[in-house]
Write a structure and sequence with these properties.
Distance between the termini: 91 Å
Number of domains: 2
Strand order of the largest sheet: 1-2
Structural class: mainly alpha
Strand content: under 5%
Shape: rod-shaped
Order of helices and strands: HHHHHHHHHHHEEHHHHHHH
């Protein structure tokens, strides 16, 4: 499966090598082509990351405001992302694409004969013509660690004895792995203490190979550092990026010390191209995002000015004693308010009709009435029972008799008819005024139609004065 995926990369490597006839330059051009192919995806990822970095101050404000309520903080942060059209995970997928490409390239480098050149594997297997020719010419198959790269050594052997292999397959080609005096097919060694420093021709190439992984790790760190410096991050993101800034260079160092040096050249080229790309994109996108930020700030100022004008208008109307309709009230609340008003209107009509039947006018309300509640202070309440005790007993009997007569009259089911007609669709607000005619009377204050004068007077004596209610 991996070899099938790696074949296009191998074909591209061979094409570039035939174009420049230099293995090192071909791998650099390969890195450039990969960078150009991935550029459209990285453009979107880069812009998304830069837009997120512009949101860092606003995210910090949300963190300060809702830091103690993580659920609310996450909700507000998600809302901000939606408003700005930012996907926090938008750049993650594209940032992982280089790794499959790196694996495919490794396969193409490891198998130059079968993947790059397309030589049939049957020719290299035991009994194949190329296998037999290699054995007849004295080629020794690699063992141990270098066995993983046996095809590289076979390719080098075939290049040195190409005339003997030319007629075995038209796919075979000569490949030189030399670049700047270094053999890129070799694996760098960090065991510098084993070098023969007495022979410059031995330790200088070894030093050059040793510097490839070091330079690769250093450029990888610089590339990530430059990218993060251009995009301020939140505290959590900064901690994550510090970890990535450490892991990626170390990974580069390890890979380049365990694979052929050509992989290190590819990693170095990728880091250099990435830094150049970041410099260009930062310059281009900063201008675009500056325009977007200016437009957003202008919209926010206009919205704030509109709200301030509404607040000023509300204050002016309050000062003038006028009222205006709250345009922000939902239709649901409007229906509830209208239904409540209709209930109150019909209840008022029913109360007026009831009083009219009894010959009582609205002005002749008892002393016990508070608002719409006729007996809020009690059915035998007398306001001056303490200041005028001589008349308190008589007034108490009269008040009790009046309440008994009031209760004996039948009432019209005004409110029930309203509910039956379906006028009340929504429950009124909790702080709404009680509906007239629906006051709840305490059970202990209920009286029989015929009261006992003495008992009423005694109850009046126990009631506190009006000022203490």
């Amino acid at each position: 499966m991996l070899r099938a995926i790696a074949k296009p990369f191998g074909a591209l490597m061979l094409l570039l090598y035939n174009l420049v006839n230099n293995y090192g330059v071909a791998i650099i051009l390969f890195a450039l082509v990969v960078k150009l192919i991935m550029l459209p995806f990285q453009l979107k990822s880069k812009k998304s990351m830069m837009r997120m970095s512009r949101m860092t101050p606003r995210l910090k404000e949300l963190e300060k405001k809702f830091g103690n309520d993580q659920q609310r903080y996450q909700q507000e942060m998600a809302k901000l992302y939606r408003e700005e059209g930012v996907n926090p995970m938008g750049g993650c997928l594209w940032s992982l694409l280089p790794f499959p490409i790196l694996i495919a390239l490794y396969q193409a480098i490891r198998y130059p004969l079968t993947i790059m050149m397309g030589v049939p594997e049957s020719l290299l297997a035991e009994g194949g013509s190329i296998f037999q020719k290699l054995a007849s010419l004295g080629y020794q198959a690699q063992t141990g660690r270098t066995a993983y790269y046996d095809q590289i050594f076979q390719s080098k052997f075939i290049t040195e004895n190409f005339d003997a292999f030319a007629g075995l397959s038209d796919k075979l080609q000569q490949i030189s792995y030399k670049f700047l005096g270094l053999d890129l097919s070799q694996t760098p060694s960090f065991s510098f203490w084993r070098w023969d420093f007495s022979d410059a021709s031995a330790w200088l190439p070894a030093l050059g190979l040793f510097m490839i992984p070091v330079l690769s790790a250093l450029l990888s760190w610089l590339s990530m550092k430059a990218s993060n410096a251009a995009s301020p991050q939140t505290a959590d993101t900064q901690r994550q990026m510090r970890t990535m800034n450490l892991i990626m260079p170390l990974m580069s160092l390890y890979i380049c010390f365990t694979m052929p040096a050509v992989m290190g050249i590819y990693w170095i080229a990728q880091s250099v191209f990435a830094m150049a790309q970041d410099m260009i994109l930062n310059k281009v996108y900063n201008k675009q995002l500056d325009i977007e930020d200016a437009d957003r700030i202008q919209r926010e100022k206009a919205k704030e000015a509109e709200l301030e004008a509404k607040r000023a208008e509300t204050e002016r109307l309050k000062a003038e004693g006028a009222t205006v309709e709250n345009r922000n009230t939902s239709k649901k609340n409007k229906r509830a308010v209208a239904a409540q008003k209709e209930v109150e209107r019909r209840a008022a009509e029913a109360r007026a009709a009831k009083l009219a039947k009894k010959g009582i006018t609205e002005e002749s309300v008892p002393e016990s009435q508070v608002g719409d509640r006729r007996y809020a202070r009690g059915r035998a309440y007398v306001a001056d029972r303490y200041s005028n005790p001589d008349e308190a007993e008589e007034k108490t009997r009269a008040a009790a008799a009046e309440s008994a007569a009031y209760d004996n009259e039948p009432t019209e089911p005004a409110v029930e008819s309203v509910e039956a007609e379906g006028l009340v669709h929504e429950a009124p607000d909790a702080d709404a005024e009680p509906v007239a005619g629906h006051e709840e009377q305490p059970e202990e204050e209920e009286h029989a139609p015929e009261s006992e004068p003495g008992k009423d007077a005694a109850e009046a004596e126990e009631l506190p004065p009006e000022g203490e209610m």
